[in-house]
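Quick question: who can interpret this fold?

. . .
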Amino acid sequence: MSNKILLLFVLMSLLIGCSGPNVVNRDPVIFSVLYNERAASPYQADWLVLQEYQQRQNVTLDVRLGDDSDYGTAVSQTFAAGNIPDIVLKVYPDQVESYATTGLLLPVSEYEQWMPHFKAYIAAHNLQAEVDKLRMKDGKLYILPGFQRQIQVQQWIYRQDAFEQNNIPTPTTYDELFDALVTLKGIYPDSTPLTAVWGGAHLFAMMGAGFGIPAGWNGTNLYDAALDTWDFSPGTENYRLMLAFLHRCYAAGILDPELFTQTEDEFYAKIQDGRALVTVTWITSGFANWNAALEQNGIPGGEWAPLRVPASTIEIRALPPVNPFRKGLVISSQVASQPYLEDLVRFLDWAVYSEEGMTLTTWGVEGVTFENTPDGKTFLAEIKTPRNPAGTIDITTSYGLDTFFNLNENEEFEDYKKPAAIVDFLNDSLNANEAEALRPVLKLDAQSTEAIRLVNELLSPYISESMLAFITGELSLEDDWESYLSELQNRGAGTLVEIWNAAWTAQNE
């Protein structure tokens, strides 16, 4: 073979090697994984994404299913039973401590020499300080975390057409919102102008930000930066002021009395049949389906639209904070004694943090689900997305994409899925710094975590009952507030404050 032919052969080999996905030269391995199966996209063993893991990494996943609607229970039961798979998906940072302190999790930070993609990703996104927040008291990291931009995708939304048709200005404050909904209730007497779901927890979290406190799903531990101390938010004056506004809405007939008990189906029915006029929800997919349902229900031109967060009655304009950490995954400590330990860590490093792995998880396979264009990636014409509702193929249901290792936000993919107007709205919200700052991370030991759990078992039901009573007027915010505060103390609110402040002092010594 001549030198020229040999050189041409080498160049062609290199080109071929660079044109396709990376293929790892390792013996076949099988890793067990607990997976959060979604009802809308049932698990299929022949999913394209699983075939690609086999082809590119020689990895087969032994998938164990947990119901996504109650996945937290599936995780806790799995750990309690002791029959823990190698990988447990969809674990959040605040769930890790109790498992790590009992020795059930692998300290992944001890194996960073096998995680070049993880280290490169952290460095490229300047996330080392954020990663360090996830370390336990022993200084070790027990979770492979996912990351996202700090864009609050949960927003206020309103029936823009109803406001415009009745010459009502877009509200910018809670008081303006109140007045507008009172007017609309008069025009549409069968409406439930302000509604929500999940027992109101979503609405309370969104409103809590406007009063400078955590509420609803945002928790109860309030950090006071000025005093550098922690307090129990349901016992604060700002919490009372939030309840006062909600009671005002209820008394005026504009707050849905069923928001405390209604199901998701009942909530969505109000969204789509014209009864609801304002709510809070995720806006990433836009509102095309809801608007089409309004049309079908006899409301031509019905249009849901995002509403810039209004300023509360104490003049705070804020959304709940956005944790830069998305769901993560953990590894069973039993893997430490297995011969495939290094293979497992290296595979997860590739699947979660490499560009190739993230592209496979989200976009899929070039030529099968997407193509590269001068303007970036684009799905093929048959793929259904919010920008292409005429598509016939759902990438998750048909191919298993955006499922197993979709920890990190692929910004190009996430923005592609959203309608262009929603992308612009969310970027404006991000640039305006509307999401409030995250509370600091409290590092709690196992004993403190258990004590907090026991106290919350007594506190949480009482707080929920009292909130309902204050909002409906069964209890008076003037006459019954002090006895409510006393009962919070009787049930252990002071103990929580003591635990939080002791932990905060200890970790800052």
Observations:
- The longest strand covers residues 29-37.
- The mean pLDDT is 92.
- Residues 446-472 form the longest helix (27 residues).
- The two ends are 72 Å apart (CA to CA).
